[in-house]
Amino acid sequence: MKIAILSRNASLYSTRRLKEAGEERGHEIRVIDYLRCYMNIAAHKPKVIYQGEDLEGFDAIIPRIGASQTFYGCAVVRQFEVMDVFSANESQAISRSRDKLRCLQILARQGIGLPVTGFAHSTKDIDGLLETVGGAPVVIKLLEGTQGIGVVLAETTQAATSVIEAFRGLDANILVQEFIKEAKGMDIRCFVVGDRVIASMKRQGAPGEFRSNIHRGGSAVKIKLTPEERSTATRAAKAMGLRVAGVDILRSNHGPVVMEVNSSPGLEGIETSTEVDVAGKIIDFLGKNAEPGKTRDRIKY
User: Fold this and answer.
1) Which pairing describes strands 196-204 and 117-118: parallel, antiparallel, or unpaired?
2) How far is residue 186 CA from its own chain's centroid?
3) What keywords sit in the KW lines (predicted)?
4) 2-96: which CATH topology?
């Protein structure tokens, strides 16, 4: 197979591992900087062009689209889809997952467990918004934040009001969620490929830190999921239309709740903590589903 990895940096761990895993299995792998691509949008012969070269003959692509480049990255993925190239994650699913509000609304519609979440436009409605999620302490999140950036724990109503007013003063869109105290700074990253969780790790926040992101000093170890947690993760990925996803879950007093569904989950933490060849499993999934003549309706897991 001929596979393109859409990544801005070939030296990143996730990109390197995917390239290595593909080449170990005899595939031809190219790393393409999607921001350097440009497109010929035509009905009869659509093209993606990279450094003056038509990108032709690819069987599959693996999008590794950065959060800040979602719009253009998804446009490139969509152009490959127009060219009938199989994508590990399709453009619509990527853009859907990047909109945190839309993501939560889709998951809620599917009956998947979530923390109580509020969303409002006007600062005049702050008291009602806080009451909706059960009052302080609450977690306040920027819709556009990643890796724990733009996530604030407000322990009092006064603190929550100040943070919300500050964010809204910057014209930033925010979510307000109940604080799952019983999680004690721990969450679970479930790595889903196809319709299965292939690896899972427990991430524990640094001392005094309620966010568990490894980028913020958290640690990670392998963990065994309950059947309910496994089902929640696979249902969440399926609801978002993602074939490859990192689903972040908290253990709450009322069962597992989904915090986020990530369309470009990093591989380093999950591979290091679980010793699972996650990159290889992604390549194997493509090998089963991206052969000539196969359609999206006949995907094998």
Assistant:
1) unpaired
2) 18
3) ATP-binding, Ligase, Magnesium, Manganese, Metal-binding, Nucleotide-binding, Protein biosynthesis, Ribonucleoprotein, Ribosomal protein
4) Rossmann fold (3.40.50)
Residue 190 · residue 247 · CB < 8 Å? yes
**In the chain, which residues fall in CATH 3.30.1490.20?**
117-179
Fold of domain 117-179 = Dna Ligase; domain 1 (3.30.1490)
141 is in an annotated binding site: yes
Q: Which tokens sit at 73?
A: 């990255």
268 is in an annotated binding site: no
State the angle between helix axes of 100-109 and 91-98 in degrees (0 to 180), rounded to the nearest 10. Answer: 100
Tens-digit pLDDT profile for the chain (301 aa)?
999 999 999 999 999 999 999 999 999 999 999 999 999 998 789 999 999 999 999 999 999 999 889 999 999 999 999 999 999 999 999 999 998 899 999 999 999 999 999 998 777 778 888 988 888 899 998 876 555 567 889 999 999 989 888 888 877 788 899 999 888 888 999 999 999 999 999 998 766 655 555 555 577 899 999 999 999 999 999 999 999 999 999 999 989 999 999 999 999 999 999 999 999 999 999 999 986 545 454 444 3
212 in a labelled binding site: yes
Cα dihedral across residues 85, 106, 66, 267: positive or negative: negative
Would you say 191 is a known binding-site residue?
no
Q: Which residues face 190 on adjacent strands?
A: 200, 247
Where, residue-wise, is CATH 3.30.470.20 in the chain? 182-284
CATH 3.40.50.20 domain range(s) in the chain: 2-96
Residues 6+ apart with CB under 8 A from 149: 142
Does the annotation flag 262 for ligand binding? yes
If we measure between CA atoms, which residue out of 91, 37, 30, 36 comes closest to residue 59? Answer: 30
Neighbour-count burial of 123, counting CB atoms closer than 10 A to its CB (0-12 exposed, 13-18 middle, 19+ buried): middle
Determine whether the annotation assigns residue 179 to a binding site: yes
Second-level CATH architecture of 182-284: 2-Layer Sandwich (3.30)
pTM value?
Answer: 0.87
